[in-house]
Structure formats: structure tokens, C-alpha cells
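Posting this for the archive.
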Amino acid sequence: MGKKNSESIVKNIATISKFSYEPTIKKYPFLEHFFINSNSPEEDWTLYLTTAGIGYICIIEGEDSPLCNKILEELGNTDGGEAIANATTKFISAMAGIIETRGLDHFPVAIGIWILNSFSNEKPQLKELESFPYTIVELFENIISSYKE
């Protein structure tokens, strides 16, 4: 797992999630439409993206991997972490079903749909899913790669 530990990976995901809100909205202005019903879109964005990031890592690294187990264990022991751990478990379950039926190639789009559906029940348009999910996955991949060096 490299020099960094799982506690710092959780903090890293949460920090990147929080600070990615503004640049993502600027790059993909259509997202604001999905946030209309949110009282606190930036906080919700941080929660959903953190959940998706942790879930992504657990799926890519393996749910039984030491990194995933350590992340989920630490989340359960931190204030507010239990809610993220529970949401992550639900995310992993939903994504596992999609990966099983549609394959790993559909995973980035499924993440995008999951994030947008967390804000709104409105179904995203195909054009909205052409690059947005891949930008999110690139953030997650950059985090993972920094822990494998």
C-alpha cells in the first residue's frame, strides 16, 4: 500500500471531494440542475463523492483487501464515519450488481448515475454522462495511484 496509511486515504478522498465541488460545477454546469432540491449541495456533494470514492477503492482493490477493511474499520470509529461506512456498503452492493450484469466498463457511468441520483430522482441524459463520470473516476484513480507508489 505504499508509505501512506488508510486513515490518510479517507481524509484525502474527503478533502478532494470537498474541493472538487466548485471546479466540477464550472466544468459541468448542468450539474446544478440536479442540486436544486439540496439544501446544502456542497456538503451533499462531499458526502456522496467521498462515499463513491471509498466504494470505488474497495471495488477496485477488492472488498476483502486489507486497505478496504482498514478504511471501513476506521470509518466506523470516527464521528460521522459510520453513516459513510453504511452508505459505502450500499454503494458497493449496487455497483457490484451493475458490474456483474454490464461489466466493469460500465462502472464509471454507474458511478455518475449514482451520484446524480443521490441528489435527484431525475434520470440523467446520455450526453451528461459522456465525460462527467470519467472525470470523477480519474480523481479516484489519482488517489489510488498515490498510495501504490
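The chain has seven helices and no strands. The chain has one domain: 6-147.
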